[in-house]
Design goal:
Elements lengths: L1 E14 L2 E6 L2 E7 L6 H13 L3 E2 L5 E3 L1 H4 L2 E6 L21 H17 L3 E4 L7 E15 L2
Length: 146
Amino acid sequence: MKALVQRVTGAAVSTDGQEVGRIGCGLVVFVGVAAGDTESDIDYLVSKTVNLRIFADEAGRFNLSALDIGGGLLLVSQFTLLADTRKGRRPSFTGAAAPEEAERLFDLFVEQARASGLTVATGCFGEYMQVDIHNDGTVTILMDRR
């Protein structure tokens, strides 16, 4: 399981021209579910995400988490994080979980994130989405459970 985390001042996701999720200051998290991922991977990445200290304290140091600042989370399923580009010019996605399993695990990821107490918005699993991101300092971190 991979999570690409971006610190934002605000973000929104739309499907078919309709906004389906929006947050203010917080984190956009693109979640890629790999074949063989389990609930323990979710436990690890949700905890890591909500506690990741990438917000500035009064001294300007990365010392605060989304929990500390009461930030929001915009969670977007993103199977393309599992792309294998080592051979040829067309990425292979054979490492991604089957859609049914990926959706089940993504939904559990969302449930656990909501249990943290943070405001959580999501995109629509398996749909074509447009994500409007206002990066905050262009802080982008890739977390890989494996």
